[in-house]
Amino acid sequence: MLPYECGQEQHEHRIPEISRQGGKSVNGRYPFLVSIPHGGTAIPPELRGLVNLTRKEIVFNSDPHTRRIYGFDDRVEAMVDFDVSRIFVDTNRAPYDYPPRTQDGVVKVITQDGTPVFKRGQTPGRELIGTLLQNYYHPFHKQLAEALDTRAIEIAFDCHSMLPRSPPVRMDAGRPRPLFCLSNRGDRNGRPKGAGGLVTCPPEWLQALTRSFQAEFDGEGRVAMNDPFRGGFISVAHYRRRRIPWVQVEINRGLYETEGREADEARLVELRRRIFSALTGFWDEVSG
Predict the structure, then answer these.
(1) CA–CA separation, 173 vs 17, rounded Å?
(2) Which pLDDT score, from 0 to 100, does residue 172 have?
(3) How many domains does the chain have?
(4) Which one of 117, 167, 183, 244 is CB 3.0 to 4.6 Å from 231, fit for a cystine?
């Protein structure tokens, strides 16, 4: 068992006690941990010569520009990001979900449009996957755990981007996606799915966060809860370990990408400002 995992159990859903008065911590930063696990586009050297994808395909199948969009730097208590593309090491998947068990696990076999990731006969085996986990996956999760253990964190955000429409490999292929998806593993109101079900953030907090995003982006599109994503391994594993609330945040790439998949720098800066405004507006409300 990994140090940031723990077993299944029943969950009480209560509003956490906030340890400081007002929105910011004593150092003037907001008490947020920001995780950006899919912003990197690097190929691990262990995989050189095995990869079937072009540079453009690797970037497209990562979360391009999320480091710019969510790069709040010293305005938050802690930030952790990741250099390697999610295609090769996906830190938002369980470490035991790897091929041939799954095609969309910690190491991908196909891309979002069904293109093989590796050359014929070159899909990594268990030993190479173990090396990737040791060299990249576990150090990322260790950084998250250390931030939660040593910094004044009151809530964590796992930050991603999503395609404007569901990709071909998904069951809901072609379905339009909302402007933002905010996830806590609950239902579409942020409440537990079933008695004793897990939510990584209190429903009242997720609802307040949704209202804050909707106010900031009023008239531009829908802000959804747990649709189309309910949250991944990062938020669940680290919530279970420390009981500090986690929310997975997904931004629609249609907000900043052109048809040619380029992004305007000024637009990225504007989105970073507005998203931070939505996060801090939410926090100022719930921390009162």
Answers:
(1) 41
(2) 75
(3) 1
(4) 183
